[in-house]
């Protein structure tokens, strides 16, 4: 699976240069929910944990998951990330909610400054950070290796929720970006994890 990221990382960084704040017709993502969420630098901790969460989960699914579980997990990441990138190409988007200055000068604030120095505020809808977290959690909880391990399932759920929240509290994403990732995950889940026969039956009932 790791060759996937050797493909997507260059693609993502290329997008960061293609779609910038100066891009014509850049759509700014914003909702009233965003105005209700305060900035909190401490959420950089779960935001950064995302990288560990994804990497460890990929290793786990490769070594502990069945071939079928691993394939479905890999395809959910491939299709989801590809869809997010294509949407950003067709529909250039970004956010403008980052505070002009940080109130505190603690370690979390300094890490955020480093993040903002390298990570643009564009290509945010749908949120890849959120989508990959959801896809990873679903892959883990559906794994037979964790079938009876309620503790690790709960840990994965809490980690996933905190990561999703971190994108909002750090003003990296709008609530719309998070919602878009949830909708995308729902659609992809239906086609990857729901058996074909069950899908056909649901269409017949409709």
From TrEMBL:
It holds the Pfam family PAP2. This is Phosphatidic acid phosphatase type 2/haloperoxidase domain-containing protein. Keywords: Membrane, Transmembrane, Transmembrane helix. It comes from [Bacteroides] pectinophilus ATCC 43243. The keyword Membrane applies. The chain crosses the membrane at residues 39-62, 74-92, 152-170, 176-196. Residues 75-194 form the Phosphatidic acid phosphatase type 2/haloperoxidase domain. InterPro entries: PAP2/HPO, PAP2/HPO_sf. Gene3D superfamilies: Phosphatidic acid phosphatase type 2/haloperoxidase.
């Amino acid at each position: 699976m790791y060759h996937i990221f050797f493909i997507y990382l260059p693609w993502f960084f290329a997008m960061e240069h293609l779609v910038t704040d100066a891009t014509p017709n850049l759509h700014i993502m914003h909702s009233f929910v965003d105005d209700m969420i305060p900035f909190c630098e401490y959420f950089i901790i779960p935001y950064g944990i995302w990288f560990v969460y994804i990497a460890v989960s990929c290793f786990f699914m490769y070594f502990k998951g069945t071939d079928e579980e691993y394939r479905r997990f890999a395809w959910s990441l491939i299709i989801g990330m590809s869809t997010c990138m294509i949407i950003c190409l067709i529909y250039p988007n970004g956010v403008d909610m980052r505070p002009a200055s940080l109130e505190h000068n603690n370690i979390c604030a300094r890490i955020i400054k480093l993040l903002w120095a390298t990570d643009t505020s564009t290509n945010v809808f749908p949120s890849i950070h959120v989508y990959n977290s959801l896809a990873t959690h679903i892959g883990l909880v559906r794994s037979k290796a964790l079938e009876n391990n309620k503790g690790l399932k709960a840990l994965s759920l809490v980690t996933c929720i905190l990561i999703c929240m971190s994108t909002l509290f750090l003003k990296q994403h709008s609530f719309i970006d998070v919602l878009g990732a949830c909708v995308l995950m729902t659609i992809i889940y239906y086609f990857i994890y729901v058996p074909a026969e069950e899908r056909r039956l649901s269409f017949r009932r409709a």
